[in-house]
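Supplementary Text 2. Reproducibility record for the structural model of the 238-residue chain.

All settings were left at their defaults, and a single model was retained for analysis rather than an ensemble. We include the record here because the model underlies the residue-level annotations in Supplementary Table 4.
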Amino acid sequence: MPSSFDLNAFQLENAAFEIRYPMALLLWDRSGQLWTECQKKWPELVALHAEPAKTVFRANKNELACELATARIIARFPERPLKEFSEQGPEFLNMVCKHLEVDSLARIGLRLIFFRAHESAEKAAATLLEGNLVRIPVGQYFKATKEPTLPEYAIQFNGNALQTTVRIRAETRRVDFDPPPGPGFDKFVSIHEEQHGIVVDVDHAAIGTMSLKQVLLREWLAQALHVLRRDLVSFLEK
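Retained model, structure tokens:
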């Protein structure tokens, strides 16, 4: 694709680091211990959601969640190169494994979602189609009188207990965003508008039963970020 489609020109909207594990019923007994340790580490911890099978808190700008069979950290509109996310994520997930006595994982996943706005749906579609990721036959089809819009490309790679899915699509969406109160969000402004643009959505995961003794979450995340930064370029250049 042309240089105007450089991933560096996209805003990183969402970064999520997640682990899945066999059902951990100790969540009902140890939830208070888990979040007490989190509060000691991150005193600004704020509760967002609390019920027996799911608890969600915010620490700094990141959302931390723990459920019976999964735990995750989500960073919304994070600053690159994701230094805070890369430090806090593995630390939180290791706390979860310690308190819930998780000794094996079924999945470790990293998902990144990028977005770049365009002035119209037609412009977003044309930019994506210039990359030749989607083949559009020449001629008129389905009695259409305008150029096609909202093209989407998706592909999955599998191998060595790894699975990566790349999705690139033109998208029109209604954006309604009000920043939450509190320190760190003062630079954000409310947004209520319709946006057109291109989304790059990549989900990279290790799958299959993994012993926690053999997996270092901090190293796994660092390697995953490196691989995605390196290989996504191949989809975004002509």
